[in-house]
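Input chain follows. Return C-alpha cells only.
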Amino acid sequence: MSLSPRLIGRLSAVITVFIWTFFIIVTRASASHVLMPLDIVCARIVGASLLLLPWAWWLMRDARSKGEDVGSLMGLSPLPLRITVQAGVFGGLLYAVFAYIGFFYAPAGHASVLMPGSLPLWTTLLMWIFLREHIGMNRAIGLAMIVAGDMLVGGMSLLKAFEGGEVWIGDLLFMSAAFCWAAYSVTARRFGLDAVRATMAITAFSLVSFVPVYALLVSLNILTSHIAQASWFEILFQLVYQGVCSVVISGIAFTQMIRSFGPVKSTMITAVVPGLSALGAVVLLGEPMSWNLLAGLALVTSGILFGVRQATVKPD
C-alpha cells in the first residue's frame, strides 16, 4: 500500500523533529568525551558515505551502462556539479563544521534556541532575497520575536565575553550553522531537489572536500585529532548516530518535508525542537535553565508558532 504525499510529509516532519531534538543533546554530551569536534565531523561524513555513496552508484548504474554522462564528482554525486557544490557547501560542509565546533563552546540549551530557533528567520530572509517570497505582517512579527529571543541568549553571552567567557563563540557558530542550513533549504526548494539524491550529493561533496584535507592536516600535526585515543565504541557510535541518523535519515526526512510544505513552513514545523531539546538538556545533561535562556526560548517558540499561524491561514 502506497502512502499519500500528505502522510509522507507528516512522517518526515515527525522524524526530523525527533532526530533534531536528540542531535543537540547527544552532540553536546559528546563534547565531554574524547573526540575533537572535527573528528566528529569526519565520523559524520564517513558514516553517511558508507551508506549513501554505494546507494548513489546503484541509482546511476542504468544510465552509466548506457554511456550517459550522469552525476558529478567522479560519479559519487547523482546531481550536476553546480547544484552539488552549492548544496554541499551549505548543507554538508559548513553546517557540520560550525555546529560541531559550537557544541564545544556553548551548552545545548543555547543550541536549542539559536539553531532550530533561528532557522525561520534565515530561511524567510533568504526566500525574500532570492525567491521574492512575500513576508506578511504576522510573519514579520514572528520573526521579530525570534530575533529578540536570540538576542536574549546570544547577547548575554557577548556581554560575558568581557569577563573572559567563550560561550559567545559557540553562539555565533550556532547562528552560522542555522544560516547554512537555511541556505541549503532554499537551494533544495529552488531546484526542487529529490530528498534522497540531495542528501547523497551533499555527502559526496563533504567527503571529497573535507576528509582529504582533514587527513592531511592531521598527518602533518597541524590539526589535533583524538581518534587514536578514542574507544571503538565511541567511534562506531558517532559513525552510526551522526552519519546514519543525523545525515541519512534526518537529511532525507527534512528534504522531503521541504518538498511537502516548502522551506518556510518546514522550518516553522520545527517549533517544538527548541523546547524539547532545552528540556532534555536540563533533565539529561544537568544544564541550568537561566532566566534569559527561558525567556529567549519562550520568545523564539512563540515567534515560530506565530509564523505557523500565518502559514495556516495564508499558504505560501
